[in-house]
Amino acid sequence: MKIGCPKEIKPQEFRVGMTPNAAQEAVARGHEVLIESGAGIGAGFDNDAYVAAGAHIIDTAEEVFATADMIVKVKEPQAVERKMLREGQLLFTYLHLAPDPDQTHDLLESGCTAIAYETVTDANGGLPLLAPMSEVAGRLAPQVGSWTLQKANGGRGVLMGGVPGVGPAKVVVIGGGVVGTHAAKIAAGMGADVTVLDRSLPRLRYLDDVFGGTFKNQYSTAGATAELIQDADMVIGAVLIPGAAAPKLVSREQLSTMKPGAVLVDVAIDQGGCFETSKATTHADPIYDVDGIMHYCVANMPGAVARTSTIALGNATMPFMLSLADKGWKQACQDDPHLLEGLNVHAGKLTYYAVGKALGIDVVSPNVIVKS
Q1: Pairing between strand 113-116 and 343-346?
Q2: Which of 100, 198, 270, 336 is catalytic?
Q3: Whether 58 contacts 36, CB under 8 Å
Q4: Is the pTM of this model over 0.70?
Q5: Do 87 and 308 form a contact (C-beta atoms < 8 A)?
Q6: I want to staple 274 with a disulfide (CB 3.0 to 4.6 A). Which of 139, 228, 237, 280 is the partner?
Q7: For the segment 237-286, what is each residue's pLDDT rounded down to a tens digit?
Q8: What is the Rg, in whole angstroms, of the alpha carbon atoms belonging to the chain?
Q9: Which of 96, 295, 338, 346 is labelled catalytic?
């Protein structure tokens, strides 16, 4: 199979879809790897590293899209890239379709087959291709939130860990999954007073057993959230419904109950955000003010630490990428029901229920597609 990896063109996106190690593995299995020139520079991989791995360097994205059987990326294809997709081509990347009708309709019109990293599952009910970026984003959230808290950036001017005689920042993490757990660990490690909210009692028991007094946890209700955010210096939104639009857990009206200069960090912004006032921002212009509350809503947070993120993502995606290349997407999905969960679009048909529900589009079962 010809596997193509174009350079990411979303603003301030420095990650790359394939590492040289992944390229080497694919070449060793007899596949041809096509890397757009300079695609890996942002993550610290130059063209020579890919050539040494056996890949071919291609001058333009247009040639990569025109030649490759499978396109491997990081972020969802941008409008100009979607125009280059063709019928029968396989796209393997993050998609986040539920809050993005334009992308969804373009993918349907292209006739391509699109498998989304964020909806591939595992035997434990986890999301193995989302998890490494969730870990990165979770660990980044308190870091960028503490920067936003600085007075010069519009925040309250509160130090996360306080100092002797002055209390620490109060941090509320909504969601106790992968993002929330890593965010809570780092925030607590910075010395903050941290409370994690979640609706799963087994998850709360797990957090209590593993982390004990490192941070607190509480069952998540609308009332509990409303009460805790009033006293919070920072609120981290870390809620995920796989493949679906994120629920809005803090309304605009509630901002008036918060402390002026408090910070909202919305890690769920890729799925539409979990605060009513969230809108996607970039690393170049990451924060904005609504009613005196600072919002950090960068849609590709892990791109800020591109090398760490690229290697972590590559470790997770490589086995699936190789399976798709070795077997073809249909056989690979027949053999692995967890990979089949990643199928979102095929030949003009939507195949993921949560996206169809969010966008009001009819859905065809992926099981029907692979058996056809």
Answers
A1: antiparallel
A2: 270
A3: yes
A4: yes
A5: no
A6: 237
A7: 999 887 788 899 999 999 999 999 999 999 999 889 999 999 999 999 99
A8: 21
A9: 96
